[in-house]
Structure formats: structure tokens, C-alpha cells
Design brief:
- The radius of gyration is 48 Å and the shape is rod-shaped.
- The protein is α+β, with helices and mostly antiparallel strands.
- The strands form 3 sheets. A 4-stranded mixed beta sheet has the order 1-3-4-2, sandwiched between helices. Strands 5-6 form a two-stranded antiparallel ribbon. Strands 7-8 form a two-stranded antiparallel sheet.
- It has helices at residues 2-18, 33-46, 56-70, 87-93, 117-124, 128-134, 214-221, 225-232, 296-322; strands spanning 53-54, 102-112, 139-149, 152-162, 203-207, 245-250, 260-262, 265-267.
Length: 323
């Protein structure tokens, strides 16, 4: 009987080991902001339009807004950001150039993490208004943000379009915005930089205007961006802002050596004093010097007279003794 229970236990154990384990679904991975931009640009290319150029300021604006929306609960308006701001105000606050005809077009959405980008672009954003943002004829720069809120993913797409006097701005690659990988096209519609004069201490201080960047400021002053960063305690991740005062360089001022006087001759760093000659009259050897004391020659004469007088006195004294 005991053997039967042992055999039955072994059979049950083997059966449990052979049972298939439940398969756990892999966690959903939210698309990145750059994958969202790649999908939008692929959509544009399919329609014969040039791809948008990534602008780092719009990237920050869109990502910040996506994270703000992800932190909200209950009813909220997706286009209204922190403090009641809209897309234009958020971009301007970060330093994106504000020029006549500029408009920031914005799409946003909240989707379950299981939905892909095709659903976002062609279903959620498939209406005319949202499609217009993605296929804007005058659109140039783009920024995107993605944030996770529970089981949903928040998407934000900001597109800058220029109209009227602004026209189409150039999009060269530069080091205008620090802390970003090279090869990123950035907005180059910048306010001209007027070089400031050094102050009394030789410090050249520049006040940042809207639309100016470290790249344009450094170029105008003929210095390196790293030099400005070091003088102002900035890192490669730091962003400058409108109204900020930056120390550009320090120009040494001409040193002024204080005038000193040695004797009667004035000495300065600018010129040497005219040569002057002081004539010292010769003093006769017999002249009384040092408060009326006799000279050396007079002293010897006095000694000789005294010696003769003493000698005469001795002779007289000896003559009197002998008599």
C-alpha cells in the first residue's frame, strides 16, 4: 500500500512539472518622441512634402507639456498648459523666436499603451484639423513629447509655421543650443547681436535679447562658447534666457603706476626726469668743520708747540737741579 502512495505522488509531481506555465505578455513600450516625429515625417514625404526639422526648444516645450498633462486627473483641456499657457506662450517662454507671422500648431492625444502610432496618426489625428498640423504647407520646425499616465500614453506634437513677413527661415546645423547632439537642425531666426563696450573694470557684459543664442553671441564677440560657459558657471545642459546678463570676457585696463619721489627727483612711469647736476664746493683743509673743531693739519701744529714747550720746561728744571 505504501508503495502505491509513493508511485502516485511521483506521477502527480511529474504531471505538475509537465503542465504548461501561463505566458505573461511583454510590457507595452511607449513610442519615443523621435519615433513620433519619424512617423509624421514619413507621412509628409508620402504626400510630397519636405520633412520637418527638429527644433530642440520645441522638443522641450512639447515634452514639458506632455508631462504636465500626464500629471493631471479628471477633466482638463489638452491645449492648456501650466498657468493657463498655450503652445505659443510655452515656446516663447523657452526662447523660441517670436516674429511676425509665427504660429505654433499643436496636436495632442491620450491613447491606451496598446495602440500604435498608426492609430494615432490616421485615426485619432485623422480629421482635417489634426492632419493639417502634420501636413502644414508652411511648417518648418517640429517638437514632440511623450509621457505615460497609468495605462495611457500622452502624445504632444508642436509644429512651427511662418507666414507673412517672416517667410521661410534657414535651418543650418549649428551649436546654437548647448547640450544637444550634433546634426540637429535648429532655428536660426535670431535677433542681431550688438557688442557691448567694456565697463570701467574691463568687463564686457552682454544682456540676452529674444532670439539670441550662445552661438550667435559668441560669434559676434569673437569668443568660444565654452569661454562664455566658464565665465558664467554654465554647463553644456544650460539654456540662456531673455534678459540674462552674460560676462563675455575681461579686457585688461592700462595699468597706472603711482608717482613716487626719491630725493628731489620726481619719478613716473611715463617719462624720465631731466638730468640735474649738483655742485659741491671744495672745502679747504685748514677750514674749521664740524662745529669749530681744528683740522688735522692744525692739530699737528698744536701738538708740536706743546712738545717744544714741555721739552723747554724739562731742560730748565734739570738746569736748576744741577746748580
Amino acid at each position: 500500500m505504501k508503495r502505491k502512495w509513493v508511485a502516485l505522488s511521483i506521477v502527480i509531481l511529474l504531471g505538475c512539472c509537465a503542465m504548461p506555465k501561463p505566458v505573461q505578455a511583454a510590457p507595452q513600450r511607449a513610442p519615443t518622441a523621435y519615433e513620433l516625429i519619424d512617423a509624421v515625417n514619413a507621412f509628409r514625404i508620402s504626400k510630397g512634402l519636405a520633412p520637418y526639422a527638429i527644433d530642440p526648444i520645441l522638443m522641450i516645450a512639447a515634452q514639458t507639456h506632455a508631462e504636465y498633462l500626464a500629471s493631471q486627473t479628471g477633466q482638463y483641456s489638452g491645449h492648456v498648459g501650466e498657468g493657463g499657457t498655450d503652445a505659443d506662450a510655452r515656446a516663447a517662454a523657452l526662447g523660441y523666436p517670436q516674429v511676425p507671422g509665427l504660429d505654433i500648431n499643436e496636436n495632442w492625444a491620450s491613447l491606451p499603451a496598446s495602440e500604435d502610432l498608426d492609430t494615432l496618426l490616421f485615426t485619432v489625428w485623422g480629421d482635417d484639423q489634426h492632419t493639417h498640423t502634420m501636413l502644414h504647407q508652411m511648417g518648418q520646425h517640429v517638437g514632440a513629447g511623450v509621457a505615460v499616465s497609468g495605462d495611457n500614453v500622452i502624445y504632444v506634437l508642436d509644429v512651427a509655421a511662418f507666414w507673412g513677413d517672416a517667410g521661410l527661415t534657414q535651418q543650418p546645423t549649428s551649436d546654437a543650443y548647448p547640450g544637444l547632439t550634433s546634426g540637429v537642425s535648429v532655428s536660426q531666426y535670431m535677433a542681431p547681436v550688438e557688442a557691448a563696450e567694456p565697463d570701467a573694470a574691463g568687463k564686457v557684459i552682454h544682456q540676452v535679447l529674444q532670439g539670441q543664442t550662445l552661438w550667435s553671441i559668441a560669434t559676434a564677440y569673437g569668443v568660444k562658447i565654452d569661454q562664455i560657459r566658464q565665465l558664467n558657471g554654465l554647463t553644456s545642459e544650460s539654456m540662456i534666457y531673455t534678459g540674462q546678463k552674460l560676462l563675455i570676457k575681461i579686457i585688461p585696463t592700462p595699468s597706472q603706476v603711482p608717482t613716487t619721489t626719491v630725493g628731489i627727483f620726481p619719478v613716473s612711469s611715463s617719462a624720465s626726469p631731466p638730468a640735474q647736476t649738483i655742485t659741491i664746493p671744495a672745502v679747504p683743509t685748514s677750514q674749521q668743520v664740524k662745529g669749530g673743531q681744528p683740522s688735522i693739519d692744525d692739530q699737528w701744529l698744536i701738538i708740536a708747540i706743546l712738545a717744544v714747550a714741555i721739552l723747554g720746561f724739562i731742560l730748565i728744571f734739570l738746569g736748576q737741579r744741577s746748580s
